Amino acid sequence: MNTRTLGVTGPVVSELGLGLMGMSDLYGPADEKESLATIHAALEAGVTLLDTGDFYGMGHNELLLRDALRGGDRDRVVISVKFGALRGPDGGWLGYGTSPAATKTFLAYSLRRLGTDHIDVYRPARLDPEVPIEETVGALAELVQAGYIRHIGLSEVGADTLRRAAAVHPISDLQIEYSLLSRGIEAEILPTARELGIGVTAYGVLSRGLLSGHWTPDRNLASGDFRTASPRFQGDNLERNLALAEALRGVAERKGVTTAQAAIAWVSRQGQDIVPLVGARTRARLAESLAATGVHLTEQDLADIERAVPAGAASGARYAAPAMAHLDSER
């Protein structure tokens, strides 16, 4: 497994990271035994970047990660944690809270659940409209100084917010959706991140399964799967998006790789400052994703992929309207 550095000031991590959200929340039921086995398989393959959030399963995801690292693997991994999302006992979304006091409180609970004395990259999940980003980053800077966190990250913020945050303290990376179907960061956000020396951890690289090569139009989503409300999985949008996936499959098959591997490799090929996060929930899906690190896309391959899935070709917004309203990156 090759490595990449998260920005100018961030940690060195594996060229592919593992996102753990689906092991606890938002994609329907998951098998905890298989989840643990998948994390262990990732570690054995050299994956060092593990991404979680304190609100994934209301703490369950952090506890799962703690259990996975009980064998002494903590010192060889980089743990990235998102915080700030407010949820009720029914799992509903109540907004975001990233005041200095809330930030420090969230961290205290995460440290306890993870069973660690520090978190490697700590980031607000979304911009809190009631709290200036300078205040949140200022509190995070105090936590860096105290040794509780090593690096400060951000998630789903726009170029202006990136500049304001970086003026307070160095930012290691921006976690944001980036895939063949979600290329909005290319216009302003990615150039700004590069100007400021901020890396990118890209989530949704398979567009939540649309580019996996395993999706079928008649697939029934489980209760609790947030994709039931996602515009890209509705009606004609789904049909058009799966047609794009089929076009990508044609390119991938000529290359001798799977659709998912082509999609992951495309994101990775966009720059050494980008680390794709894959959300594999099983060892089989993980193995397929890991093989993408061995895929070399030539300029001709990139041109073929661009023709198959042109920028802006996706149908439907990447989140439902209420969630889109919280995205500073979309303003």
Automatic annotation (TrEMBL):
The keyword Oxidoreductase applies. This is Aldo/keto reductase. Pfam families: Aldo_ket_red. It comes from the Bacteria. InterPro entries: Aldo-Keto_reductase, NAD(P)_OxRdtase_dom_sf, NADP_OxRdtase_dom. The keyword Ion transport does not apply. Residues 15-308 form the NADP-dependent oxidoreductase domain. Transmembrane segments: none annotated. SUPFAM superfamilies: NAD(P)-linked oxidoreductase (SSF51430). Keywords: Oxidoreductase. Gene3D superfamilies: NADP-dependent oxidoreductase domain.
